[in-house]
Amino acid sequence: MNAYLAYFAKRLVQFVVVVFIGVNLAFVITHASPIDPVEQSIAAVTSFGSTAPEAIAAMRSSLQELYGLKGTVAEQYVTFWSRVLRGDFGPSLSAFPTPVSSLIGRALPWTAGLLIVSTLITWVLGNLLGGLAGYYQRNRTLKLMGVVAMGVHPIPYYIVALMLLIIFGFLWPVLPITGGSAMNLQQGWNWPFVSSVARHSILPALSLILIGLGSWFLGMRSLVSNIVTEDYVVYAETAGLDSRRVLGSYVMRNALAPQVTGLAMSLGGIFNGAVITEKVFGYPGVGTLLVDAVYAGDYGLVLGVTTVSIIAVSVGVLVIDLLYPLIDPRVELR
Amino acid sequence: MSGAAEQAPVLQVRDLQAHFRTHYFGVNREVRAVDGVSFDVNRNEIYGLAGESSSGKTTLIKTIAGLLKPPLEMVGGSARFSFLPDWDAVGRAPPEVVRAIRWRHLSYIMQGSMNVLNPLRRIKHSFRDFAWRHLGGSKAEFDLRAAAHLERVKLDPSVLAAYPHELSGGMRQRVTIALATICKPEFIIADEPTTALDVVVQKDVLGMIRTIQQEMGSSVLFITHDMGVHAALTDRLGIMYAGRLVEDGETPEIFARPLHPYTRHLIGSLPRIGDTEQREGLEGTPPNLATPPPGCRFHPRCPLAMSVCTTTVPAMIETLSGHRVACHAVNPGMAA
């Protein structure tokens, strides 16, 4: 147990260092941007007519405070960190004066809901089918699936997404093609809203699953077809173990460790949003938010989304690191 | 083992043939890896099988154990176990019958024993997977039984809670021996179980196999190319060359009076303390089994080869001492 605590502490330090470096990079990069949010805001306000220079000076001062751009770079850096720790990224430039944190808070459930569900479905389905295909190598249906996965896998994502839109939006218009839900509904845990969200998520989720399935399927199949020739699998088969037990506890279980790492990485990446998916399907998630913020030069919003995703990816990796000894006892704890 | 030998043999192998059959690009290829092997393994004895690499030892035991996978096929003959009297080979019995005898009556200690334990499963789970269905009882009872059995191979019961990577090579080997013997099977097939171990651990493990075999009265079919191990461990010994059994008999008898020229070379190659000269190797290499030489397969390398050896397959003849050999140069009774 002490070994585990030491391992835990080591990973925790790693986590803190990674987050620290990442957030610092976000600070440097946004400061290197040529867009000055304060001047942009002032320009937006003053373009409607003449304003007194004193008023502009006062406005500049308060805007600089709002954006955390007051004082020298060192002072800004301190302000920046105190705000990050409080989860406050100032107001959004493009949606002034809505705070960045509430914009992210509004977009995150959409992205997280869509991507967590579709990533999990993809992962479970891909690994299950891939594992079966690797174990029952003579099964025709599974062989055919391998061929299909090989064929679909290299198609660019946006083409699959657009094909789905054309098929289910125009040729056979049964599913909504844009948005996260119908506009006229009360958001909350009520049936009309939930079912509308579910219906709207079918196409984006389907596109993600179709494209994601292939790599898990092929990866798991090759992992499993290596594992079935391992001595311990041959021995278990030789001993007359039930083939379901061999498949479950000896083959799939042992192939799972690397796949779980992959899952953690892709779950962490969710907080970046799926930019293309959200753009193609007009989904109101973090990806759309991020791209719009970049176009609009919305300094605070870019910084906010970047910071949240840095922390999320690091947390994902940390959680997996901490769980990994349970998945694979051979991991060196010291 | 003369008392036990009066009973019917546990395993009777008769004219067993197993070939690799492939069919690529319209060309049929047949490699006769095991070609007409006959021998018995009696109750409560260790029968050794010796021969160089690619002599068909592993194919032979795979055939006996019913573990053939294409392209390897059992082509003819029989390998009948006393506990499976209705079928002339394990591989010909229906899968559920085979599953019921595996581990209960017939178990294995495999080549590369170091890696036969699932690295992600605790030892006690491996024991449950392999033996619980045969022994029954509650989980706690079974674990106690496994712990008691581990003590017989001088392992602490705490090993049950360990993962394989936490054990040393010798400990893992003892775990596999315990795993293979916990159901007290009548027949154990041991395929080069000590080849990967250093000689000190090897001695330990061989002694353990012997002790457990005597306690349980099981029969062991022990395969290794190491003649020193055969001399130390086995009761009877069969020598394989190019897919055929060329000689078998009681181990001391074979070491004292080897009849087949190949056996003589095998035994003559063992170094002895005080050797001043290098031992002579046998010229040539084992034949390609896709196109074996006609007649006696050993004749191209045999110092005693006669013209009959190139045309006629020598029959297995029994000499006076219950010692069998397949060689034209040996006459019945000449061994005595």
Kindly state the mean pLDDT of chain B as a whole number?
A: 85
Helical fraction of chain B equals 25-40%
Q: Structural class, judged by helices and strands of chain A?
A: mainly alpha
List segments of chain A where confidence is low: pLDDT < 50 over at least 5 consecutive residues.
Answer: none
Q: How would you spell out the order of helices and strands of chain A? A: HHHHHHHHHHHHH
- For the largest sheet of chain B, list the strands in their spatial order: 5-6-7-3-8-9-11-10
> Largest interface, by Cβ-Cβ below 8 angstroms: which chains and how many residues each?
A-B, 19 and 25 residues
Global shape of chain B: globular
| Element pattern of chain B in H and E | HEEEHEHEHHHEHEHEEHHEE
- Report, as a whole number of angstroms, the end-to-end distance of chain B: 21 Å
Gyration radius from CA atoms of chain B, angstroms: 21 Å
Low-confidence spans of chain B: 1-5
CATH class value of the domain at 110-296 in chain A: Mainly Alpha
Main β-sheet description of chain A: none
Tell me, what's the shape of chain A? Answer: globular
Helical content class of chain A: over 70%
* Beta strand % of chain A: under 5%
Tell me what you see in this structure.
- The complex is a heterodimer of chains A (334) and B (336).
- By secondary structure, chain A is mostly helical.
- Chain A has a domain at 110-296: MetI-like fold (Orthogonal Bundle), CATH 1.10.3720.10.
- Chain A has 13 helices and no strands.
- Chain A has helices at 2-32, 37-46, 53-67, 73-86, 100-135, 140-152, 157-171, 191-227, 231-238, 243-268, 275-280, 286-296, 299-327.
- In chain A, α2 packs antiparallel against α3, α5 (100-135) packs antiparallel against α10 (243-268) and α12 (286-296) runs antiparallel to α13.
- Chain A is globular, with a radius of gyration of 25 Å.
- The model of chain A has no long low-confidence stretch (mean pLDDT 85).
- With 336 residues, chain B is of the alpha/beta class.
- Chain B is built from ten helices and eleven strands.
- Chain B is globular and about 70 Å long.
- An eight-stranded mixed β-sheet of chain B has the order 5-6-7-3-8-9-11-10, sandwiched between helices. A three-stranded antiparallel β-sheet of chain B has the order 2-1-4.
- Chain B has helices at residues 2-5, 57-65, 95-101, 123-135, 139-152, 169-181, 199-216, 227-233, 251-256, 261-268; strands at residues 11-24, 27-41, 46-50, 72-81, 106-109, 187-191, 219-223, 236-241, 244-250, 317-318, 324-325.
- The longest helix of chain B has 18 residues, at 199-216.
- In chain B, a hairpin with a 2-residue loop joins β1 (11-24) and β2 (27-41).
- In chain B, α4 (123-135) packs across α5 and α6 (169-181) packs parallel to α7 (199-216).
